[in-house]
Amino acid sequence: MELLTPGIGLIAWQLLIFLALFFVLRKFAWKGILSALKSREEEIDSALRMAEETRAEMAKLKSDNEKLIAEARAERDALIKEAKMTSSRMVEEAKSKASQEAGKILEDAREAIAQERITMVDSLRKEVGSLAIDIAEKVIKKELSDKGAQTKLVSELMSEAKLN
To answer: Do 143 and 149 touch, CB atoms closer than 8 A?
Structure first.
């Protein structure tokens, strides 16, 4: 049982060595250890503050980015809307211009047809007049080839003519 129960002398020596070690460590190492722990604690606090500031800054940047994205989308939508309006306006202008040009072409064609009709009618009248004169000349020559028929025609015309 001797192994399990230490002697009084051993306990005294262990206590003396422990106290000496404690005082030496307190005198030389304790301040260094405490200052190292304090500086480590300050570094951790500093790192936590910086992490919190970084987190806040990231949140701010994220909200700023979302605002910028929203503005960019709004600008894109406005540009697309404006482009659509411009294209539809251009299409309408082109349709209007084409319609005006078609109307002008139709009007010019109608005028040309009317002029051509007038020219054709005049030409036809001249031809008909010329033909009537030719036919009348031939009929009169045939009718008036005889001297008695000529005299008779002249007397009929004189009786029909009203002399004032």
So the answer is: yes
Q: What is the DSSP letter of 161?
A: S
Terminal C-alpha separation, the chain: 189
Instruction: Considering only CA atoms, give the Rg of the chain.
Output: 65
pTM: 0.41
Q: Percentage of residues in the chain with pLDDT exceeding 90?
A: 59
Q: Give the position of tokens 């029909």.
A: 160
Lookup: tokens for 75: 């600008």
pLDDT digits (tens, 9 = 90+) for 120-137: 998 888 888 888 787 777
Q: Measure the CA–CA gap between 164 and 153, rounded to whole angstroms.
A: 21
The pair of three-digit structure tokens given for residue 4, joined into one six-digit string: 């399990």
The low-confidence residues of the chain, meaning pLDDT below 50, are 164
144 in Cβ contact with 150 (< 8 Å): yes
If DSSP states are collapsed to H, E and C, what string results for 98-156?
A: HHHHHHHHHHHHHHHHHHHHHHHHHHHHHHHHHHHHHHHHHHHHHHCCCHHHHHHHHHH
Give the contacts of 143 (CB within 8 A, at least 6 positions apart): 149, 153
